């Protein structure tokens, strides 16, 4: 029996990849392709837009009410609408939209009290594995007498609106928790003085159609460690989100992440 899914942000770059990947998975059935009401592709067949053939589901602005899981890859506004729909209909939610503000985050956490919510800055398997590696390295180096300088570099396509990426910030949180670093430095310009010991540096590059790269640099005296993870296309995010939807559909209400989906949680 197929899991009925709705995709919010369906006409966007990620939404279209989600539709295409879902069409190849016999355990999934697309029932909603949601986007903003003034989007030029409203009314178009979602499968045709995604290049996967006629789906029989048109892009629309309202949910049909049949979904068993919603995947949101849209905007903060779209995320709010998805949260409200899922809470009202007791529907599991996968939240993959980044750049959420405090109000949306609060609503998401509140929603997890009544429905299963999978929330992660990245849906990529490789990224989440690298987060575990980053935590291990950070803990191993935290007490090094000579000190360790941590810099996080991320690259994304020119269309990305938030900076640094949510994934970069998550890497920073992991490093900060592991090493006790609390100061965040976003870029450098001019005569800023020597680098402080208690800082994590962030650097964002926006160019072309890069689907996403992250490098975590641990700089020491005489040596360095660079952890690098890169996507070659958007399918890694789409496949991860679909796996998260299957996971969420089987869970009790609560707030989950991709470590839970992949069986990497410490607990």
Q: Catalogue the unreliable spans.
A: none
CATH architecture of the largest domain: 3-Layer(aba) Sandwich
Strand order of the largest sheet: 3-2-1-4-5-6-12
Overall helicity: 25-40%
Radius of gyration (Å): 20 Å
CATH topology of the largest domain: Rossmann fold
Number of helices: 8
- What CATH first level of the largest domain would be assigned? Alpha Beta
- Sheet having the most strands: 7 strands, parallel
What's the shape?
elongated
Number of strands: 12
What number is the mean pLDDT?
95
Fraction of residues in β-strands: 15-25%
Structural class: alpha/beta
CATH superfamily of the largest domain: NAD(P)-binding Rossmann-like Domain
The domain tally reads: 2
Question: Could you give the order of the helices and strands?
Answer: EHEHEEHEHEHEHEEEEHEH
Q: Could you walk me through the main structural features you see in this protein, from its secondary elements to its overall organization?
A:
The protein has two domains: 3-123 and 234-262, Rossmann fold, CATH 3.40.50; 125-230, Dihydrodipicolinate Reductase, domain 2 (2-Layer Sandwich), CATH 3.30.360.10. The relative contact order is 0.16. It has helices spanning 13-23, 46-50, 76-89, 102-111, 125-141, 166-179, 235-248, 258-262, and strands at residues 3-8, 28-34, 59-60, 69-72, 93-95, 116-119, 149-156, 183-186, 199-206, 213-219, 224-230, 254-256. Helix 3 (76-89) runs parallel beside helix 4 and helix 5 runs parallel beside helix 6 (166-179). The protein has eight helices and twelve strands. The strands form two sheets. Strands 3-2-1-4-5-6-12 form a seven-stranded parallel beta sheet, sandwiched between helices. It has a five-stranded mixed beta sheet with strand order 8-9-7-10-11, with helices on one face. The radius of gyration is 20 Å and the shape is elongated. The protein has 267 residues and is an alpha/beta fold. The model has no long low-confidence stretch (mean pLDDT 95). Helices cover 34% and strands 24% of the residues.
């Amino acid at each position: 029996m197929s899991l009925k899914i709705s995709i919010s942000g369906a006409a966007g770059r990620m939404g279209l990849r989600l539709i295409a990947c879902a069409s190849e998975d016999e355990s999934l059935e697309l029932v909603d392709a949601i986007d903003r009401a003034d989007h030029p592709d409203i009314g178009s067949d979602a499968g045709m837009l995604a290049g996967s053939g006629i789906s029989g589901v048109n892009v629309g602005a309202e949910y049909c009410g049949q979904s068993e899981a919603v995947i949101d890859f849209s905007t903060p506004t779209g995320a709010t609408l998805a949260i409200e729909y899922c809470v009202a209909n007791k529907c599991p939610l996968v939240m993959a939209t980044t750049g959420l503000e405090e109000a949306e985050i609060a609503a998401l956490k509140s929603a997890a009290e009544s429905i299963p919510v999978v929330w992660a800055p990245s849906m990529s398997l490789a990224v989440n594995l690298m987060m575990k590696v980053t935590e291990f390295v950070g803990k191993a180096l935290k007490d090094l007498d000579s000190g360790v300088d941590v810099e996080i570099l991320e690259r994304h396509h020119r269309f990305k609106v938030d900076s640094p990426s949510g994934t970069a910030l998550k890497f920073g949180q992991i490093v900060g928790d592991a090493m006790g670093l609390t100061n965040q430095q976003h870029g450098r310009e001019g005569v800023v003085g020597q680098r402080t010991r208690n800082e994590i540096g962030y650097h964002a590059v926006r160019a072309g159609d890069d689907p996403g790269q992250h490098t975590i640099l641990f700089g020491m005296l005489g040596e360095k460690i660079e952890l690098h993870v890169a996507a070659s296309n958007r399918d890694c995010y789409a496949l991860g989100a679909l796996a998260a939807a299957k996971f969420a559909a089987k869970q009790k209400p609560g707030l989950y992440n991709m470590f839970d989906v992949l069986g990497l949680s410490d607990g």
